[in-house]
Write a structure and sequence with these properties.
Structural class: mainly alpha
Helix content: 40-55%
Order of helices and strands: EEEHHHHHHHHEEEHEEHHHH
Shape: elongated
CATH architecture of the largest domain: Orthogonal Bundle
Number of helices: 13
Oligomer: single chain
């Protein structure tokens, strides 16, 4: 650690000290760190603090506040949470001092807290987005950018900790649905037999429900403003899901899935986690245990039912480019046959298992 002039750190005790001249000021600070990388990150942060913003220089906290006030991304709730986690580490630093060294403490802390590297990468993407906006788009009263020069690149963490999907069996489906509160069971059933994402299910509105009179079936047509890739999404309902959805028609004037007259904003909540455990589903830390597993289940069942690849892509809303939904009746019937096939598959499996 000799290259870090003015930094001392004891690996055994975790005690450390920074003592260094920085920008004409003697900086002294004692600290505790559990790893060398955390000690080095604290070193960078301590040296950054004495630097006073000059002229129009702004702190990351000010930039983050401006970002939350002006952006209209679909993921703003998640971005807000990320910025709350980041603020104690870099909130008081001028934008010019946000770089690999000053974010390293945040990375080390999140790893120590057991947060996945994928989550940390998404959180750092918010930092990168703010720095890019500050450099390229945001201007002060004099027309100067909030951040001079190019925003820095980060070496993003990868701890080889990506969790594996866990498609559930029909028996596991039965057990899971049986121990869930009714509103959550309805949302899970919808996920299992439509493959819709949690974010879409939580936003479902009655105005998006359409009746196809020619074949007496129902679809949801979700506007692109509410989908991950920004394009409209068609969700055909099989008979079981259709019956469940129509039974909820009078529960709320606007939203499909509600609890105590309020929209359910998340499926992956404490009720979900408790139900997963009660159902005896795997608790292994290496696997996913969330609503996205229902999407994997839907895809696997479609493949087992020999549904063509292009149809599966359409049902999962995997689109290439800007696609406007305009299905012909024959194409709609093909989609309905696919979602019905996994119900027939379930019946067939039950008969086979009883022999």
């Amino acid at each position: 650690m000799a290259k870090f002039t003015g930094l001392s750190w004891d690996e055994k005790t975790g005690q450390g000290r920074v003592r260094k001249m920085s920008k004409g000021v003697v900086v002294t600070r004692r600290f505790h760190a559990t790893t060398r990388s955390e000690a080095e990150a604290i070193y960078y942060q301590v040296l950054a603090v004495p630097a006073k913003p000059k002229g129009r220089a702004r702190t990351f906290r000010a930039a983050a506040t401006h970002f939350l006030e002006t952006e209209t991304k679909k993921s703003m709730e998640r971005d807000t949470y990320a910025l709350e986690e980041l603020d104690p580490h870099i909130g008081n630093l001028p934008l010019e001092q946000i770089h690999q060294g000053t974010i390293q403490g945040f990375i080390a802390k999140r790893k120590a807290d057991g947060v996945s590297s994928g989550t940390v990468r998404r959180e750092l993407a918010v930092v990168r987005r703010i720095l890019k906006l500050a450099a390229l788009y945001w201007r002060d009263e004099a027309g100067k950018p909030w951040l001079e020069g190019q925003p820095p690149m980060f070496r993003l963490p990868d701890w080889d900790d990506k969790k594996k999907p866990y498609p559930i069996s029909h028996d596991e489906e039965r057990r899971l649905l049986s121990v869930m509160p009714q509103h959550l069971s309805n949302m899970t059933l919808f996920a299992l037999y439509t493959g819709a994402r949690e974010s879409v299910i939580a936003q479902l509105r009655w105005e998006w429900l359409n009746h196809i009179k020619e074949i007496d079936r129902y679809v949801f047509l979700v506007p692109g403003d509410f989908t991950k890739n920004g394009t409209d999404c068609l969700i055909p309902l099989n008979i079981r899901v259709q019956a469940m959805v129509l039974s909820l028609k009078d529960t709320h004037p606007e939203r499909v899935f509600v609890y105590r007259d309020k929209p359910v904003l998340r499926m992956h909540n404490s009720g979900w986690k408790l139900a997963w455990k009660k159902a005896g589903l795997p608790m292994d830390k290496t696997i996913q245990k969330g609503p996205h597993d229902m999407r994997h289940t839907f895809a696997r069942r479609l493949r087992s039912a020999m549904v063509p690849h292009e149809v599966i892509k359409a049902l999962l809303h995997h689109v290439d480019g800007d696609v406007t939904i305009n299905y012909a009746p024959a194409q709609l019937e093909e989609l309905f046959r696919a979602v019905d096939a996994i119900l027939e598959q379930k019946t067939l499996l039950r008969v086979v298992n009883s022999i």
